[in-house]
Amino acid sequence: MLADGGPHGTRGDITLAATFEETLRKVKIRELQLSPPLKVQKGTALREAISLMQERKQPCLLVLDGEKVAGIFTERDILYKLTAPGKDLSGPVDAVMTAEPRTLHPEDLAGKAIRLMTEKSYRHIPLADDDGKLLGYVTARDIIVYIAENFPTEVFNLPPVLHQTPMQAEGG
What we know:
By secondary structure, the protein is an alpha+beta fold. 33% of the residues lie in helices and 19% in strands. The chain has helices at 16-26, 46-56, 75-81, 110-120, 140-150, 152-156; strands at residues 10-11, 14-15, 39-41, 60-65, 68-74, 98-99, 124-128, 134-139.
């Protein structure tokens, strides 16, 4: 517990927890420091796509049809779809990508991205305009970095087990 007796502390008369939650309800995805997307065109060979991911040390790439998002290809696709012995890596990435992935708009709230990532176990969500043209992508890491940079008190004061509250105040 903090000196004021509350679990979160205060900033003036607003609790830090409330400020944190309110911010996540207001901040737009475009306000985050977004990672630049790795992208290839439909028809790119799996071997080339995987090599590009390894070379750039990226966990996913976006597959485009022209300028529009056609799919997403991730480490999970490699692990779950390509680990069978004798799998042909000369085929197109289109054959194993997740086609027509859910996209968000940069004007959507970060909370919407967090909800999608939590409910659907996504780690990367493409960002597209109203016509489906790729604008970038948001990653779970982008959101974690934003939270850690903007709310260090909340992040660094979390107990090892969430929702754990001490029975008594620490110290003498």
